[in-house]
Design goal:
alpha/beta, seven-stranded parallel β-sheet
Length: 283
């Protein structure tokens, strides 16, 4: 249908100085099994979600080697390779997965190199457009972890470097070593602890990629969302996504799902315009 909302309705955002994507992406964590472990319950649906996302104008897909582990990246390649022109696949490294629901930071340079090279192979890429350090490891000097990503970039294995789950001080420490084009932190209407980094994104020009953009395990939670949803004829989850898009032009939400129907609802949020009164009500 020609009137189906697409991700293009959100406008575009630069990733570094040579890439541009629509400002509503797709987070590919939940196309894996329970506990973000193993294959999805419905393999064919997961493949169709990825293909439908691209059909709807999504040209930024976020994943990580730890999703599955490895399952999400393998599904992306299966569903979308050879990749359409302009599709930016971002992945991350820096976690070990001992079991379902279990996450252990590992920022050792040798680990980051190994998982980056594994991601290249699984995604069937010669170069990863955006590679993100998944989480600082308190057992490893932060500069050592970021420095290994710089080495991988200099070798041509990654194009741009991003950070995830960092604070302003860590961003500044990394920026002293290399250009940082994105930060991916938890952020939604009911969790705004990372607000200072969003303000910094507005002045520095990097992309802010919120994870759990609709509230994580409490989808759509947040004061005022239900009221605004009724006013604009949308769901609270859609309003949460629209709120993020309105929050800053540097915002690149990546709502994820394992359902084609939910995917279409999420993408449709790109076309929702919230008034100043709506934004004030959400806070």
């Amino acid at each position: 249908m020609t009137d189906t909302p697409t991700a293009a309705a959100a406008g575009t955002i630069p990733i570094g100085d040579d890439l541009s994507v629509n400002r509503l992406g797709f987070g590919a964590m939940r196309i894996t099994g329970p506990g973000i472990w193993g294959p999805p319950a419905d393999h064919d649906e997961a493949v169709q979600v990825l293909r439908r996302a691209v059909e709807l104008g999504v040209d930024f897909i976020d994943t990580a080697d730890s999703y599955g582990p490895e399952v999400s990246e393998e599904l992306i390649a299966e569903a979308l390779f050879p990749y359409p022109e302009g599709l930016v696949i971002a992945t991350k490294g820096g976690f070990l997965r001992p079991g379902p629901g279990n996450w252990k930071p590992d920022g050792r340079p040798e680990h980051l190199r190994a998982v980056c090279e594994g991601s290249l192979a699984r995604l069937r890429l010669e170069q990863i457009p955006l590679y993100q350090f998944h989480r600082p490891d308190p057992a490893v000097p932060f500069e050592d972890s970021v420095g290994e990503l710089v080495a991988l970039r200099d070798e041509g294995k990654i194009r741009h470097i991003g950070l995830s789950n960092v604070d302003v001080a860590q961003f500044e420490k990394a920026s002293a070593l290399t250009p940082i084009v994105s930060v991916q932190n938890r952020y939604n209407p009911s969790d705004r602890a990372t607000e200072p980094l969003i303000e910094l994104a507005g002045t520095r020009g990097f992309a802010f990629i919120p994870w759990a953009p609709v509230g994580g395990y409490r989808p759509g939670a947040g004061d005022g969302l239900a009221t605004v949803a009724k006013r604009v004829g949308a769901s609270p989850v859609q309003v949460a996504i629209a709120w993020q898009l309105a929050r800053s032009p540097q915002m690149l939400p990546i709502p994820g799902t394992s359902s084609v129907d939910h995917l279409e609802e999420n993408v449709a949020a790109a076309a929702i315009e919230l008034s100043d009164d709506d934004l004030a009500l959400i806070g």
